[in-house]
Design goal:
By secondary structure, the protein is mainly beta. Helices cover 5% and strands 41% of the residues. The strands form eleven sheets. Strands 17-21-20-19-18 form a five-stranded antiparallel sheet, with no helix packed on it. The chain has a four-stranded antiparallel sheet with strand order 3-4-5-6, with no helix packed on it. Strands 7-8-9-10 form a four-stranded antiparallel sheet, with no helix packed on it.
């Protein structure tokens, strides 16, 4: 059992860190796309998105980014602000931004770095150490029971994958350390104070309450208390709907409390007539509009479990499953509509999952910059005056937002796409990234140039070393902007990937002289 749990843990780190590990820094000579200014987000690999007080916060593989003017300008917080840790989770509550961080050690094991929080929109940050137990913390009082609990004394395999809030408590899902909570005000005044461990049912129980006589130990692997090892004590997601209703997703199912996290009912792939698709719940969200429960359910140990989306409209008593085979990450809602962010695309349903609609394409209406990714991590709706909404999407290839004018519109409107980019030092400069370019990496080459914020007809061509034309990327296309982007897949006019070598490209604006630069292609 221990071996199976450890294998499961390794799988979790490889999938859930995709958004943080996806390449977001590209170089051309001494030029890097890693941002340090506030003209664009700091990174292209977007994780969580949060909205509050007119601000949009997003975690990225390069740090935290925030805009308070709809994306016109950005305030960026590099990973150096967080002890050079990567961001695993994020939450915003009562004007405070919270960031759960960690890193991989030399053995490729995730190590928790605690939480950083700011009460003044990032001007100052305070670190809360990763919650761990003292070696003697081996018992917990739960109702009439004195429960045995295996202390989690190290930050290894103990990182904060999710953060949620009730009115006066912060809740975290901390993997091997399970689900924990703490009084928010007390934690702010004393960042080193201990967290309360939350007792969830063992794998062989479907519910617990304080008056039950319980004999299991709280532990994820066998130890001095015996051979017990419970997947339902591995915490991966948490959603506090209100002060009473709490959901906790684990590697062993989805747990629901209606009394503030004291009593729990557990839903699994096997304990109901119409069950969830799988037991490993990496994300859970409740639609505030109608109370529907939506869970990202991944295959754990059951041979008949499957990746997909599980949803319930009756508080978890029966479930429907959708998008079989996809690895869902999180959910967003526009009234009763649901958006599922998955590894194969962003999908939206207007009819409770019967049909799913993906955007035809996501291309910035002004600059032409696209989202070249099908891996989506987050979706969130910003409700605006006059029945308008902004729908923000986070992907491994950038951040995007669309404004929909009324409740009947579905992916109709102009897209804005925000990506990290190095400012051009001159309007007569151009660069491309990544360089060298590897066409077989399934990632397009980006060419950055400027029209000096003037309308111009732009042509971009690629030539071989002998200055023979091999590809026209765009020809006499109207463009207007200061940092524009075009994309190329490394193929010639016939669709054949070009062989290794040095190539040149030219950017021509109206009748101006062409601007040249060099590309190295490696296969």
């Amino acid at each position: 059992m221990i071996k199976r749990i450890l294998v499961l843990i390794i799988i979790v780190s490889s999938f859930n860190l995709y958004s943080q590990e996806y390449p977001a820094t590209f170089k051309l000579g001494e030029k890097s796309l890693k941002k340090s200014d506030d003209k664009s987000p700091i990174g292209n690999s977007i994780g969580d998105i949060a909205i509050g007080n007119g601000m949009i916060w997003a975690s990225t593989g390069q740090g935290l980014t925030m805009t308070n003017d709809g994306g016109n300008t950005w305030q960026n917080f590099p990973l150096s602000n967080f002890g050079n840790n990567k961001i695993y989770s994020m939450g915003y509550h009562e004007d405070i931004i919270w960031v759960g961080v960690g890193k991989k050690n030399s053995d490729d094991v995730d190590v928790g770095g605690g939480i950083w929080f700011s009460q003044n929109n990032g001007e100052n940050w305070t670190n809360i150490p990763q919650p761990v137990d003292d070696p003697g913390d081996s018992s917990i009082i739960y109702g009439i029971n004195n429960m045995r609990a295996l202390p989690v004394t190290v930050p290894q395999q103990n990182v904060i994958w999710d953060i949620s809030f009730t009115s006066d408590e912060i809740w975290i899902a901390s993997w091997a350390a399970g689900i924990r909570k703490c009084k928010t005000s007390e934690l702010i005044s004393n960042p080193t104070m201990s967290w309360d461990r939350v007792i969830l049912p063992s794998d062989n129980l479907n519910s617990i309450s304080p008056n039950d006589v319980l004999t299991f130990s709280l532990q994820v692997q066998s130890g001095k208390f015996g051979p017990e090892a419970y997947l339902n004590h591995l915490g991966f997601s948490v959603d506090a709907v209100n002060d009473n209703e709490i959901f906790a997703g684990t590697a062993g199912g989805l747990n629901r409390s209606t009394d503030g996290g004291i009593s729990w009912e557990k839903f699994t792939h096997t304990n109901q007539d119409k069950p969830m698709g799988a037991n490993w719940v990496v994300g859970v969200d409740v639609n505030p509009y109608n109370g529907e429960i939506w869970a990202a359910t991944w295959k754990a140990e059951g041979t008949d479990e499957f990746y997909g989306v599980s949803a319930s409209a009756d508080n978890g008593q029966t479930w429907s499953t959708f998008l079989s085979g996809s690895k869902a990450n999180n959910f967003g809602f526009k009234f009763d509509e649901v958006m599922a962010a998955t590894n194969i695309g962003l999908f939206r349903t207007l009819d409770k999952g019967t049909n799913w609609i993906a955007p035809a394409s996501i291309i910035d209406a002004r600059t032409g910059a696209p989202i070249h990714s099908n891996f989506y991590i987050s979706a969130i709706t910003e409700y605006l005056p006059d029945n308008k909404v902004n729908i923000w999407l986070g992907s491994s290839g950038g951040l995007a937002v669309i404004t929909e004018d009324d409740n009947s519109k579905v992916w109709e409107g102009d897209w804005n796409v925000f990506k990290a980019s190095q400012p051009l030092s001159s309007v007569n400069e151009t660069y491309c990234a990544p360089n060298p370019y590897y066409p077989n990496k399934n990632r397009p080459l980006k060419i950055v140039y400027s029209t000096n914020n003037k309308l111009a007809n732009v042509t971009i061509r690629v030539f071989d070393f002998g200055m023979n034309l091999v590809k026209t990327i765009i020809q006499n296309v109207s463009r207007n902007g200061n940092e524009l982007e075009e994309y190329w897949d490394g193929r010639d006019e016939s669709g054949t990937v070009l062989p290794n070598g040095v190539y040149f490209y030219s950017v021509v604006r109206n009748d101006d002289d062409p601007i040249f630069n060099k590309i190295m292609i490696l296969r």
